């Protein structure tokens, strides 16, 4: 399966889908969330985004569905191009599809010895291998510290720079050999996951894209429309939490003359919604998922 739709019912219920409305699935992937939206949509319209050409193969034949192969950071431009002026709700699942982890040549997983690619869009110019071989030691250290929250980021960056003097780091095997002495314990999966996460975020400019998407899509949302976002790590979750709470990614709460919080959104769920034990058992990759839902209260 390309991807198990995480928190499917919870996210669909959170959207409070209105029949005949216009909705966006910003991360189409395997189409699971989109299929769920279409089931509840009636005669409405669904615009789905995905920059991965493999995802386009999963589109279903439904005249209510408009699939756009593109990065969701440019959603504002695409919506304007297609004449969309307002929407009733938007959904984004920010997780990496199972397809990406399980297809060795995409280079997302340390389970396979393959080219270190990690591009969501194969047409993007920069791969993870380019970063490993071209970034300065200082830039690598900052990358692993910021995006992977790796404790020994300095040692890690130094090991990579030393190893690439011997030969280019082109495969996951090359990388694992280069950082062998940096890995706590014999085989620390959590540590390696952080290293690969940091590279993936940098390759795909994930946080910058998320910020741009939030600002762009919110401008199309009507009063009363819902925004549902599923995150998988603290960096992106903090951005979403801040934006839903304050209307900006910095989390700076502005108040009016009377002390009322001035934000275009109000969180629908006080606490994050997480998968239950049954879903995690069926899909272990869902264990870190967090669903936040907000409602637009200002046009």
Give a summary of the structure in a few sentences.
This protein is an alpha/beta fold and 299 residues long. The chain is built from 13 helices and seven strands.
Keywords:
single chain; 299 residues; alpha/beta; Rossmann fold; DNA polymerase, domain 1; 2 domains; 7-stranded mixed sheet; 13 helices; 40% helix
Question: Explain this structure to me?
Answer:
The model has no long low-confidence stretch (mean pLDDT 91). Helix 7 packs across helix 10 and helix 11 runs parallel beside helix 12. The chain has two domains: 182 residues, 3-Layer(aba) Sandwich (Rossmann fold); 101 residues, Orthogonal Bundle (DNA polymerase, domain 1). It has 13 helices and seven strands. By secondary structure, it is of the alpha/beta class. Strands 3-2-1-4-5-7-6 form a seven-stranded mixed β-sheet, sandwiched between helices.
Helix content: 40-55%
Ends: how far apart?
39 Å
Low-confidence stretches: none
Cα radius of gyration in angstroms: 20 Å
Principal-axes geometry comes out as globular
Which strands sit side by side, in order, in the main sheet? 3-2-1-4-5-7-6
CATH architecture of the largest domain: 3-Layer(aba) Sandwich
Helix-and-strand structural type: alpha/beta
Integer average pLDDT: 91
So what's the CATH class of the largest domain? Alpha Beta
Helical stretch count? 13
Q: What amount of the residues lies in strands?
A: 5-15%
The description of the largest β-sheet is: 7 strands, mixed
Do you know the CATH topology of the largest domain? Rossmann fold
Number of strands: 7
Task: Indicate how many domains the architecture comprises.
Answer: 2
Give me the strand/helix succession: HEHEHEHEHHHHHHHEHEHE
Give me the CATH superfamily of the largest domain.
Vaccinia Virus protein VP39
């Amino acid at each position: 399966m390309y991807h198990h739709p995480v928190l499917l019912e919870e996210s669909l219920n959170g959207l409070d889908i209105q029949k005949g409305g216009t909705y966006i699935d910003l991360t189409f992937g395997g189409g699971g969330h989109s299929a769920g939206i279409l089931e509840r949509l009636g005669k409405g319209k669904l615009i789905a985004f995905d920059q991965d050409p493999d995802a386009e193969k999963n589109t279903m034949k439904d005249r209510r569905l408009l699939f756009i192969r593109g990065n969701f950071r440019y959603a504002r431009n695409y919506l304007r191009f297609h004449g969309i002026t307002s929407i009733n709700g938007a959904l984004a699942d920010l997780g990496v599809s199972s397809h990406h982890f399980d297809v060795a040549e995409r280079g997302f997983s340390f389970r396979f010895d393959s080219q270190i690619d990690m591009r969501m869009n194969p047409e993007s110019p920069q791969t993870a291998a380019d970063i490993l071989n071209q970034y300065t030691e200082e830039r690598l250290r900052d990358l692993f510290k910021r995006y992977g929250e790796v404790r020994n980021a300095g040692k890690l960056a130094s090991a990579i720079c030393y190893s690439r003097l011997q030969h280019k780091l082109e495969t996951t095997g090359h990388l694992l050999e280069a950082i062998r002495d940096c890995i706590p314990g014999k085989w620390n999966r959590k540590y390696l996951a952080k290293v690969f996460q940091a590279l993936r975020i940098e390759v795909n400019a994930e946080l910058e894209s998320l910020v741009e998407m939030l600002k762009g899509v919110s401008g199309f949302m009507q009063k009363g429309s819902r925004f549902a976002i599923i995150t998988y790590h603290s960096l992106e979750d903090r951005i979403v939490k801040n934006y839903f709470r304050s209307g900006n990614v910095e989390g700076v709460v502005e108040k009016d003359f009377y002390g009322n919080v001035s934000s275009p959104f109000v969180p629908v769920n006080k606490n994050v919604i997480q998968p239950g034990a049954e879903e995690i058992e069926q899909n272990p990759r869902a264990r870190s998922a967090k669903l936040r839902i907000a409602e637009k209260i200002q046009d």
